[in-house]
Amino acid sequence: MLLLAVPVTARQESSSTTYGYTIFVGGTLVGREEVTVQTTPTGTTITGKGRLSGTLDIVMQRAEIRYRPDWTPERFELEATVNGGDSAIQTVFTGNTAVTRGTDGGQRIDQTDTVAPQTIVLPNVFFGSYEALTRRLATAPVGQEFPAFIRAGNQLTLRVLGAVAERMQIATSTFNVRRYSLALADAKGATPVNLYADEKGSLLRVSVPAIGLDVMREDLASSTSRTMVYSNPGDEAVNIPATGFNLGATLTRPKAATPTAKLPAVILLSGAGADDRDGVLSGVPILGQLAGALADAGYLAVRYDKRGYGQSGGRAESATLADHADDALAVFRWLANRNDIDRDRIAIVGHNEGAWAALLAATRERRIAGIATLAAPSTTGAERILEQQRHVLEQMKLPPAELVSRIELQTRINAAVISGRGWDGIPPETRKQADTPWFQSLLAFDPAKVVRDVRQPFLIVHGELDAQVPVSHADRLAELGKTSRSRAVAVVTIRGVNHLLVPATTGDIAEYASLEDRNVSKDVTTAMTAWLTKSFASVR
After folding, report:
1. pLDDT at residue 168 above 70?
2. Three-state helix/strand/coil letters over 260-298
3. The sheet that has 370-374: what strands, in order across it?
4. What are the backbone angles phi and psi of residue 43, rounded to the nearest 5°?
5. Cα angle 206-210-213, degrees, rounded to a multiple of 5
6. CA–CA separation, 287 vs 269, rounded Å?
7. Could you tell me which of 69, 42, 186, 38 has the C-alpha nearest to residue 124?
8. Residues 169, 165: Cα–Cα separation, whole Å
9. DSSP strand pairing (370-374 vs 341-351)
10. What is the pLDDT, as a whole number, of residue 6?
11. Burial level of 503, CB count in 10 A (0-12/13-18/19+)?
C-alpha cells in the first residue's frame, strides 16, 4: 500500500532562499547548480539553472517546479541542451493526471501519465528538485513511501528507511543536520540514497553511493567543513603538520591508559569514496567505528580528513596516491615523535584504495611495524576501474550493445589517461574529468609491484560477501604476499560481511540502505586486534 506524505498547513510564510550546489561523481567535480526556493501562501516554487558535464553534457537554462500549499505538484518546466540537442518540456499536473508536452533532443513528446496526487517531481537533470522531498521528510515516519515523477513514462517510489541527527561543522561553527536514508525503488530494484537537510528542511546534500554521485551545497563543500557523524569516548581533535599544510585529525585513546604508558598506535586510511576522517560509506562510519574498537583493545587510533577535504589543507584535485602515502607518513612521524607513543609499535591500516596508500607508505618507511588491508583491490588501477564500471552497468540492466559501448569507451579513456595519447573522439568535458593527477596515479598503480617490497607483518582482511571488491581479490593479494619480503603474511576472510565490513545477507550495493546492523563486524575488529597483538609482541 502506498502511503502519502502528511499534508502541511495550507498557509505558509513567504520566504526566498538561493544556494549554489556542486556536483561530484567519483570525487571529481562535474557540475554546478544554482537553486532558488520561494515559498508564498499560494505554494512553493523551486527554480534552478546549471551545467553537468561528462558522458552527458547538459546545460540547464531553466528548470521550475511549482507545488500547491498541500504539496500537490502543479507544473514542471525545463529548458535545456543535452549533448547539443535542445529540450523544452512542460508537465502540467491535475489531480491524478500528468500531461507532458514539448521536445526532448529534437523528438516531440505528447504523453499523459496517471500519478498519485502528492507525487514529488524529481527530474534526473535537476538535483535541486530534492528540496521538495527534504521539506516533507521532517514529518515522515520510517517506512513512509513517496511516489516520484521522473519524466514522462518514468515513475518510481522512495521509501524512508531511517533518519539520524548529526552535527555539521564549518570552521568553528556547528549546527544540527538530519540525514535520511532512503531506498529508490523501480522495476529494476532498489538504490540507496542519502539526503541531508538542515533544521528548516533545506537541502544540504544528495548522495547516491552506487554511482558515486554527491551533490553538496557549496558552503559544505569547502575545506573548512566536516560532518561530525561519529565520535568515541576517547576522541580528541588535533591538527597534524604535513608538507605545507595541516591535516585535521582525531585521536582515539584507550579508556584505561595510564598517564605514563607509551601506547601502541594504528593509523587508519579510507578509500576513494570516503574523504572524511570517519570513512563514511553509505552511512557507515567505518574508520570511526574501527578507531573505537581499537581503543577498547588498548591501541591509540588516528584517523584524518584527506588533504583538501574537511578540515585538512592542501589541494585535493592535484593529489595522487603517492601524495596520500606522504600524508600517512606525516602522521607516522608525528606519532613517532610523541612521548606517549611507542614508536616501535605503530601500524597502518587501509580500507579499499586506502590500502594502496598504506602499502606505499609501508614500503617507504621501514619503522612502520605492520600493514593491514581491508577490502583491498589486488589488480591494477585500470583493471579495477573497468571491473567497477562493469558491475555498475550490469546493475543498470542496460542493453548488451550499450553495455559493450560504455566499457569500450572507458577502456579508451583509461588508455588515454595513462599514455597521454588517443583523446580523439572523446568529449572534451570527459577528458577534463578524467585527465587528472589523481586518476592517472590510480590507473597506473599496480599492487604487485608494491607488495614485493613490503617487509612488515602483512594482514589481508576481506568480507566474504563483498560485492564491490569481490573476495577473489583477497586470494590474489595473498599470492602477491608470497613474493614480498614479509615473513608473516596472514589472510582472514570474514563470513557474512560486505564491503562496508558490516553483517549482510547478499552484500549487494542495493542492500546497503536496508541493512539493520550498521556496525563494523566484531569478527573484523577481533581479527585486527589479534594480529596487532601478535605482530607487536616481537618488538616489545
Report:
1. no
2. CCCEEEEEEECCCCCCCCCCEECCEEHHHHHHHHHHHCC
3. 235-241, 246-252, 300-304, 263-269, 341-351, 370-374, 458-463, 489-494
4. 140, -165
5. 35
6. 8
7. 186
8. 14
9. parallel
10. 33
11. buried
Distance of CA 28 to the CA centre of its chain: 12
Contacts of 410 (CB under 8 A, 6+ apart): 385, 386, 389
Q: Which residues pair with 59 in a beta bridge?
A: 51, 81
- What's the pLDDT band for 4 if we cut at 50, 70, 90? very low
pLDDT at 540: 59
Cα separation, 68 vs 72, whole angstroms: 5
Residue pair 266/251 in contact (Cβ under 8 Å)? The answer is: no
pLDDT-derived band at 98 (thresholds 50, 70, 90) equals very high
What's at 38, amino acid-wise?
Answer: Q
Q: Taking a C-beta distance cutoff of 8 angstroms, is the pair 289, 520 a contact?
A: yes
Average pLDDT over every residue of 100-127: 91
Q: Report the Cα 118 to chain-centroid distance in Å.
A: 30
Nearest CA to 267 out of 285, 290, 239 is that of: 290
For 221-266, how does the pLDDT look when each residue is reduced to its tens digit (9 = 90+)?
Answer: 654 445 555 788 888 989 999 988 999 999 999 987 777 789 999 9
Is there a contact between 513 and 481 (Cβ–Cβ < 8 Å)? no
Could you give phi then psi for residue 451, rounded to 5 degrees?
Answer: -60, -35
C-alpha cell at 122: 524529481
The rounded radius of gyration (Å) of the Cα atoms in the chain is 24
Q: What is the pTM of this model?
A: 0.65
Long-range CB pairs of 255-260 (<8 Å, 24+ gap) are: 255/295, 255/296, 256/298, 257/298, 257/300
Query: What are the phi and psi torsion angles at 79 (to 5°)?
Result: -125, 115
- Enter the C-alpha cell of residue 78: 525545463
Element (H, E) at 415: helix 400-419
State the pLDDT at residue 513: 73
Q: Which residues pair with 302 in a beta bridge?
A: 251, 267
Q: Write the single-letter amino acid at 459.
A: L
* Residue 536 pLDDT: 93
From first CA to last CA, the distance across the chain in angstroms is 63
| Model pLDDT for residues 270-292, shown as the tens digit of each residue | 988 788 899 988 778 999 999 99
Residue with cell 529494476: 188
Hey, is 399 helix, strand or coil? Answer: coil
Spatial contact of 48 and 33, defined as CB atoms under 8 Å apart: yes
Decide: 289 and 232 in contact? Cβ < 8 Å.
no
CB atoms inside a 10 Å sphere around CB 401: 8
Q: Give the residue from 232, 218, 267 showing the smallest Cα distance to 247.
A: 267
**Environment class of 78 (CB within 10 Å of its CB; exposed 0-12, middle 13-18, buried 19+):** buried
Among residues 187, 298, 165, 311, the alpha carbon closest in space to that of 247 is found at 311
Using a 10 angstrom Cβ sphere, with 0-12 exposed, 13-18 middle and 19 or more buried, the burial of residue 246 is middle
Sign of CA dihedral 502, 515, 164, 195: positive
**Chain mean position to CA 381:** 18
